[in-house]
Hints:
Elements: H1 2-45, H2 54-94, H3 98-153, H4 158-216
Helix pairs in contact: 1-2, 1-3, 1-4, 2-3, 3-4
Amino acid sequence: MAAGTSNYWEDLRKQARQLENELDLKLVSFSKLCTSYSHSSTRDGGRDRYSSDTTPLLNGSNQDRMFETMAIEIEQLLARLTGVNDKMAEYSSSAGVPSLNAALLHTLQRHRDILQDYTHEFHKTKANFMAIRERENLLGSVRKDIESYKSGSGVNNRRTELFLKEHDHLRNSDRLIEETISIAMATKENMTSQRGMLKSIHSKMNTLASILFELCC
Length: 217
């Protein structure tokens, strides 16, 4: 009976680790998508008035679709990992050997912490992406208004000049935000690397705990 319950616990742990690894890869790709969307939008903003609008719109549309698809996939993985954690919690609370509960609860808490970190990272990256998209849509609308006004008046009068200066100010602010986001992304990648090291250490600790668990059984 002990061997059967031990196998069930190990199976749950394997499922949790597999889902965590999948989420880690998905979140890295999700973060890169947010960064590439911002960079491509900045490059599009530097085009001259004679270049085509077709390509940027197509690129933005593709990235929007990728964003929606990846967000759904990550939400599904988070839901599955939550389900596995719930099963682990149910098992640990019903384990018949009190002396082993501490090791089980320690492992369960670690998986819960990882789930919480991934959930927080997902929502933060998603919010950043949507903020960038909203900002770029606003700047795109401003650029169209400028071009429409210039083509209608036929001359760069004083009002157009003031309008263009305001637009340049917005673009300068956009670049400052871009630099801040890049710093944040670099910090996140460094934290991801550190998290990988901690997962490796934790995996070794879990292996030792499993050996002790089997010896006790």
